[in-house]
From TrEMBL:
<feature type="domain" description="AMP-binding enzyme C-terminal">
    <location>
        <begin position="535"/>
        <end position="613"/>
    </location>
</feature>
<keyword id="KW-0067">ATP-binding</keyword>
<comment type="similarity">
    <text>Belongs to the ATP-dependent AMP-binding enzyme family.</text>
</comment>
<dbReference type="InterPro" id="IPR020845">
    <property type="entry name" value="AMP-binding_CS"/>
</dbReference>
<dbReference type="Pfam" id="PF13193">
    <property type="entry name" value="AMP-binding_C"/>
</dbReference>
<feature type="modified residue" description="N6-acetyllysine">
    <location>
        <position position="613"/>
    </location>
</feature>
<feature type="binding site">
    <location>
        <position position="504"/>
    </location>
    <ligand>
        <name>ATP</name>
    </ligand>
</feature>
<dbReference type="GO" id="GO:0046872">
    <property type="term" value="F:metal ion binding"/>
</dbReference>
<keyword id="KW-0479">Metal-binding</keyword>
<feature type="binding site">
    <location>
        <position position="527"/>
    </location>
    <ligand>
        <name>CoA</name>
    </ligand>
</feature>
<feature type="domain" description="Acetyl-coenzyme A synthetase N-terminal">
    <location>
        <begin position="36"/>
        <end position="88"/>
    </location>
</feature>
<keyword id="KW-0547">Nucleotide-binding</keyword>
<dbReference type="InterPro" id="IPR032387">
    <property type="entry name" value="ACAS_N"/>
</dbReference>
<dbReference type="GO" id="GO:0003987">
    <property type="term" value="F:acetate-CoA ligase activity"/>
</dbReference>
<feature type="binding site">
    <location>
        <position position="339"/>
    </location>
    <ligand>
        <name>CoA</name>
    </ligand>
</feature>
<feature type="binding site">
    <location>
        <position position="543"/>
    </location>
    <ligand>
        <name>Mg(2+)</name>
    </ligand>
</feature>
<feature type="binding site">
    <location>
        <begin position="391"/>
        <end position="393"/>
    </location>
    <ligand>
        <name>ATP</name>
    </ligand>
</feature>
Length: 649
């Protein structure tokens, strides 16, 4: 891509794509309605959110919409009782019982469809099975699964009985699973023998076995037979999913839970080596995800909606499971890799199921560009009517390709900015209301007070770089870091009192459009996956030959950011290519394949300030080889980010 003569820098990007007339005519929200919602949310936020909240099913209505007296601990829909599983299932049975809820395709090509009726039945049975294993309200359950319908079943079953799930992405290592089990004090792990990825079986159960050696809180392990591979079943601890549900009753009324009852924990990377257990609660999260799903994806009764994320990330939680199912949508779910068996797998799926809405990540789009237009062009993509992007800034070149080659020039693109912590989309065009500019997530959604400010919290002039903050609480915001409320306050609420700090750098243009550039903390975004430099550093220094390590990101045309490790070795150790390979494997073993370093560089010393802090900016410059002809947009953004980070070093 970087050799493309048409490269246009984000900074110079001026193209605008107003919503097309036909789309506007049928849109859930048009420009006038968006304006009305935004004004209403500004003038009467409680009234606005109350009205939105009524779209959910409540067992008992709330007494107050928002309690923000104990800053930064918001309570939403105070006193109301609700159940997420009920809202995603039971509520639809009368009108949508026979509608497809999940249309699933396994990597080897096997398929399954679960109607709302069938999904409800599976969830009820599994919820009863969980109860039988001693899991109850407030207990933590780790879910380490491939992308199969049972993963959604497990999540909704936890939600049904008020247990908190902690889904761990299947690409994480055994050590990572153990860390998360211990932090959450999980009672139960749900896994599968394996899952398919690029024609191979990922040995999930074997990883769990290793993790459980170091996870004393875990008493039981449920194993789904997905791949028919041989696994060890530890008597008294491990049980097969199919045995459990065989005799389970399909009658399991949903628990009436407090609106603020914890729904799940999801671990994500922060500035330190220890991942943060982001805690979301029930009422507000469900409202945030379902409302944004309706607005941003313009969801209609007959849409076939496909979000390609893994359920192990927040995008999968909010936009495969909770948001779409709460809206009674038909969700496509695909287990495997986009290039298995060939590079046209996604387009084959779009054509086969007549997908109307596709939500994917820039890193995937850049891979599709590299693989060539012949793959999408070989399939009928005319069912598509709306495209989405999430996970990292989308470079204008990728945006234009997505628009033309996948969207046939007719589909609006919603570039959605949000975070694990925000629970739901915060900044995004509404496709029937806002003109898009390639590379910009455009404007905050109605009710979301996101702004770009300087160090003192003052709005920055149009065009200058600043920090992205959110000035008012919103329903789907995280409530705390599980087990570490002090870290919650320090990380998100100490830079600007009473204001949520996103740790993203951004700028706002003269039209008020927000251009998010990337993280200003030590968090990397590798192929849309969040990873802290400290996590990789602490994995490296655990290796017996490593004395010290500094890890930085560098712009990468495909992955967004690549991982570069500067390593000093212990006395008497000789640097070698073999050692580089060994260290890369060591990081993969410790964290997972998503953390594999792109480059390991040995160095006699690391550059430090007089106070002994590693000068990361300097290392970032070296790692990026500033003079190279990488993707121009990313390099410019890196330069702005470097400036924003400067004061910290
Ligand atoms: C949903 C998700 C959050 C970080 C966030 C930002 C980056 C996500 C983006 C984007 C620019 C977008 N990010 N979407 N940057 N434009 N549309 O990805 O959550 O994994 O927690 O990552 O991802 O840097 O702070 P999460």
């Amino acid at each position: 891509m970087s050799t493309d003569k048409n490269i246009t820098s984000v900074l110079k990007e001026t193209r605008q794509f107003p919503p097309q007339t036909e789309f506007v005519a049928q849109a859930n929200v048009n420009a006038a309605e968006r304006e009305r919602l935004a004004e209403w949310a500004k003038s009467d936020p409680d009234g606005f959110w109350a009205e939105q909240g009524r779209s959910l099913h409540w067992f008992k209505p709330w007494d107050a919409v928002l309690d923000w007296t104990n800053v930064p601990h918001a309570k939403w829909f105070v006193g109301g009782t609700i159940n997420a599983s009920f809202n995603c299932l039971d509520r639809h049975l009368a009108a949508r019982g026979n509608k497809a809820a999940i249309v699933w395709e396994g990597e080897p090509g096997d398929t399954r469809t679960l109607t709302y009726q069938q999904l409800h039945r599976e969830v009820c049975k599994f919820a009863n099975a969980l109860k039988g294993l001693g899991v109850g309200k407030g207990d933590r359950v780790t879910i380490y699964m491939p992308m199969v319908p049972e993963t959604a079943v497990a999540m909704l079953a936890c939600a049904r009985i008020g247990a908190m799930h902690s889904v761990v992405f299947g690409g994480f290592s055994a050590d990572a699973v153990a860390d998360r089990n211990n932090d959450a004090q999980s009672k139960l792990v749900i896994t599968a023998d394996g899952g398919w990825r690029r024609g191979k079986v990922v040995p999930l159960k074997a990883n769990v076995d290793a993790a459980l050696e170091k996870s004393p809180s875990v008493q039981k392990c449920v194993v789904l037979n997905r791949c028919n591979t041989a696994v060890e079943m530890k008597p008294g601890r491990d049980v097969w999913w199919h045995d459990l549900v065989a005799d389970a009753s399909a009658d399991c009324p949903a628990e009436e839970l407090d609106s603020e009852h914890p729904l799940f924990i999801l671990y994500t990377s922060g500035s330190t080596g220890k991942p943060k257990g982001v805690l979301h609660t029930t009422g507000g999260y469900l409202l945030g995800t379902s409302l944004t799903h309706k607005w941003v994806f313009d969801i209609k009764e007959d849409d076939v909606y496909w979000c390609t994320a893994d359920v192990g990330w927040i995008t999968g939680h909010s936009y495969i499971v909770y948001g779409p199912l709460c809206n009674g949508a038909t969700v496509v779910m695909y287990e495997g890799a986009p290039n298995q068996p060939r590079e046209d797998r996604f387009w084959e799926i779009v054509a086969k199921y007549k997908v109307t809405i596709l939500y994917t990540a820039p890193t995937a789009i850049r891979a599709f560009i590299k693989w060539g237009d012949q793959h999408p062009k070989a399939h009928d993509l005319s069912s598509l009517r709306l495209l989405g992007s999430v996970g990292e800034p989308i470079n204008p070149e990728a945006w234009i390709w997505y628009h033309n080659v996948i969207g046939g020039g007719r589909c609006p693109i919603v570039d959605t900015w949000w975070q694990t912590e925000t629970g739901a989309i915060m900044i995004s065009p509404l496709p029937g209301a806002v003109a898009t500019k390639p590379g910009s997530a455009t404007k905050p959604l109605p009710g979301i007070q996101a702004e770009v400010v300087d160090k003192q919290g003052h709005p920055v002039p149009a065009g200058s770089g600043g920090f992205l903050v959110v000035k008012r609480p919103w329903p789907s915001m995280m409530r705390t870091i599980y087990g570490d409320d002090e870290r919650y306050k320090a990380t998100y609420w100490s830079n600007y009192p009473g204001v949520y700090f996103t740790a993203d750098g951004a700028r706002q243009d003269e039209d008020g459009y927000i251009w998010v550039m990337g993280r200003v903390d030590d968090v990397l975004n590798v192929s849309g996956h969040r990873l802290s430099t400290m996590e990789v550093e602490s994995a490296l220094v655990q290796h017996p030959k490593v004395a010290e390590a500094a890890v930085v990101g560098r712009p990468d045309d495909l992955k967004g950011e690549g991982i570069v490790c500067f390593v000093t070795l212990k006395q008497g150790t000789n640097p070698s290519d073999e050692l580089k390979t060994e260290l890369k494997a060591h990081v993969v073993h410790n964290i997972g394949a998503l953390a594999r370093p792109d480059d390991v560089r040995f160095s006699e010393t690391l550059p430090k300030t007089r106070s002994g802090k590693i000068m990361r900016r300097f290392l970032r410059d070296i790692a990026a080889g500033r003079q190279t002809t990488g993707d121009a947009t990313t390099l410019e953004d890196f330069a702005v980010l470097a400036k924003l980070r400067e004061d910290d070093e």
